[in-house]
Amino acid sequence: MTLLRQAAGALDPARYSVDVVHLGEQPARIADAERTCVRSVPALVIGGLPFHINHGADLAALRA
Question: pTM for this structure?
Fold first, then answer.
């Protein structure tokens, strides 16, 4: 999560709205992640496109 927070913090807030979500702590947001085609975490979604940082866990595993 540290790398993800650093990457998100490096984005220009005038250009991008940043919302850091920990799906393990906020499982209600899993559906949001699925709608943006996030397949594994951690991931960044920029402009509606997912960028998978490093494979930590499949999104399906968080539903279990």
Answer: 0.73
Nearest residue to 55 (alpha-carbon basis) of 36, 35, 33, 39: 39
Query: Structurally, how many domains does the chain consist of?
Result: 1
The CATH number covering residue 39 comes to 3.40.30.10
Residues 12-33 pLDDT 10s: 989 988 888 888 899 999 999 9
Token reading at 56: 């930590």
| Spatial contact of 56 and 42, defined as CB atoms under 8 Å apart | yes
Domain that holds residue 29: 2-63
Question: In the block, which residue shows the tokens 């807030």?
Answer: 13
Amino acid, res. 30: I
Collapse the DSSP code of 10 into the 3-class scheme (helix H, G, I; strand E, B; otherwise coil) and give the result. coil
Q: Determine the longest span between alpha carbons in the chain, in angstroms.
A: 37
